[in-house]
Amino acid sequence: MRTQVAIIGAGPSGLLLSQILHKAGIDSVVLERKSLDYVLGRIRAGVLEQGLVDMLDAAGVGSRMHAEGHVHDGTELSFENKRHRIDFKALTGKSVMVYGQTEVTKDLVDARQGADAKLIYEAEDVALHDFDTDKPWVTYRKDGVEHRIDCDYIAGCDGYHGVSRASAPQSVLKTFERIYPFGWLGILSETPPVSDELIYARHERGFALCSMRSDVLSRYYVQVPLDDKVEAWSDERFWDELRLRIDEKAADTIVTGPSIEKSIAPLRSFVAEPMKFGRMFLVGDAAHIVPPTGAKGLNLAASDVHYLSQALIAFYSERDGGLIEAYSENALRRIWKAERFSWWMTGLMHTFPDAAPFEQRMQLAELDYVTSSTAGAAAMAENYVGLPY
Ligand code: FAS
Ligand code: PHB
Q1: Which of 79, 123, 124, 149 could form a disulfide with 141 if both were Cys (CB 3.0 to 4.6 A apart)?
Q2: Residue 264 — pLDDT band, cuts 50, 70, 90?
Q3: Residues with Cβ < 8 Å from 254, sequence gap 6 or more?
Q4: Closest-lying ligand to the alpha carbon of 288?
Q5: Is the CB of 164 inside a 6 Å radius of any atom of ligand 2?
Q6: Residue 17 · residue 116 · CB < 8 Å
């Protein structure tokens, strides 16, 4: 088989890249190691920046998002039993869209399947070859049969545990990482959200987040120790702990119910540089991870896809390779600013086991500043709604 761009991974990065290239008349094949059902069963991000909303619209997959998603003009920071609203719209003129990553993935799969795209699920042992030459190729096994795909470029959209970054020359690859001393226990429940907007809560017992997927589907998180186990958390224990960490008004009005999904995710900051190795590119979680506190993970994958798709379109339409050569530098400039914001917001809202009383006071002073200063609130708001591409 031959294609112009071989895409490894059918998460949001791989599917969005494939759809945008298709709209530009560029052929791709997407190789995914899991089944479609497995990919669609993952519960992940919930907040879309305007940049991603615009990309989904341009890719022709935004209609259900606009019909079912919720536009949020602000968010609430809760600490010392009081809620403070950060008014994105007034401070930046922008909003965010609350619409689950699972739904984005479903919309992209529907669009790709509708265009008879070559999406190959349960592709085993994907391997990348000769991407340091102008004739790269990829191999994989499907139903016991080995296959080869010759291509012009390889897009490694295969996430943090994928094969693409592992295939990069390790002597060239540089990584930067911070592992946080806690995780997030998240649940999904078929209950009405406790508030119209998200509530980020800082409490001495630990961070909590009240989010949602729709008017009847809520998403909640509490910070837990790194060695905690989901089995140790009954629904009742979760709801009791969440009530202790959010403000009294929310605790008194929250509607609880059985969890339909419950899991613990670790938190890390991670960046791999560079993001281009010959004719192979790293995209999305394959190149970087952020703690979900700033709601940046999915949105950073989108801006990588923006830079790479623009570069490939310029190459195939005008034989201009300039943006291809600049891909890594362009993507990393935005990535590092989102890494900084995610690290800052995580430090602001979580309790750190080894934090001295002085650091705890610094957290409260920073929260007091951000919620009482227009400049402080604007700095948070412009990062949360998404810095320009
Ligand atoms: P993904 O990891 O989504 O997709 C990579 C795909 O490649 C997967 O389908 C995988 O199966 C496939 N793959 C891997 N290795 C392969 C191989 N060798 N061959 C073929 N295919 C291979 N972000 C937020 O903004 N907000 C959140 O609240 C949030 N919560 C998260 C919770 C969890 C538990 C996790 C893990 C992440 C969360 N994220 C969140 C981040 C997440 O949304 C990612 O940023 C987003 O999925 C990135 O998309 P991709 O780059 O496509 O990577
Ligand atoms: C979510 O709804 O899953 C969500 C929202 C905002 C975050 C993290 C997760 O910062």
Answers
A1: 124
A2: very high
A3: 194, 210, 239, 242, 243, 246
A4: 1
A5: no
A6: no
345 CB within 6 A, ligand 1: no
Atom of ligand 1 lying closest to residue 297 CA: 45
User: What is the three-state SS of 25-74?
Assistant: CCCEEEECCCCHHHHHCCCCCCEECHHHHHHHHHCCCCHHHHHHCEEECE
pLDDT band at 232 (very low <50, low <70, confident <90, very high): very high
Q: CB of 193 closer than 6 A to ligand 2?
A: no
Atom of ligand 1 nearest to the CA of 123: 20
Q: Which domains does the chain possess?
A: 5-49+64-70+97-177+268-345 (3.50.50.60)
Ligand 2 touching residue 102 (CB < 6 A): no
pLDDT in tens, 194-225: 999 999 999 999 999 999 999 999 999 999 99
Q: Which atom, in ligand 1's list, is nearest to the CA of 163?
A: 18
Q: Which ligand is nearest to the CA of 384?
A: 2
| Tens of pLDDT, residues 150-173 | 999 999 999 999 999 999 999 999
The pTM for the full model equals 0.96
Measured in Å, how far apart are the chain's first and last C-alpha atoms? 34
Q: Is 46 in the pocket of ligand 2 (CB under 6 A)?
A: yes
Tokens of 215: 């008017």
Q: Beginning with the edge strand found earlier in the chain, give each strand of the sheet holding 288-289 in spatial order.
A: 82-87, 74-79, 199-202, 208-214, 217-225, 174-189, 259-273, 288-289
Whether cis (ω within 30° of 0) applies to the bond prior to 136 is no
Which of 198, 210, 223, 383 for a ligand 2 pocket mutation test, highest count of atoms within 8 Å of Cβ? 198
- How much distance in Å is there from the Cα of 159 to the middle of ligand 1? 5
Percent of the chain with pLDDT over 90: 99
State the Cα–Cα distance between residues 119 and 327, nearest whole angstrom.
Answer: 25
d(CA 242, CA 246): 6
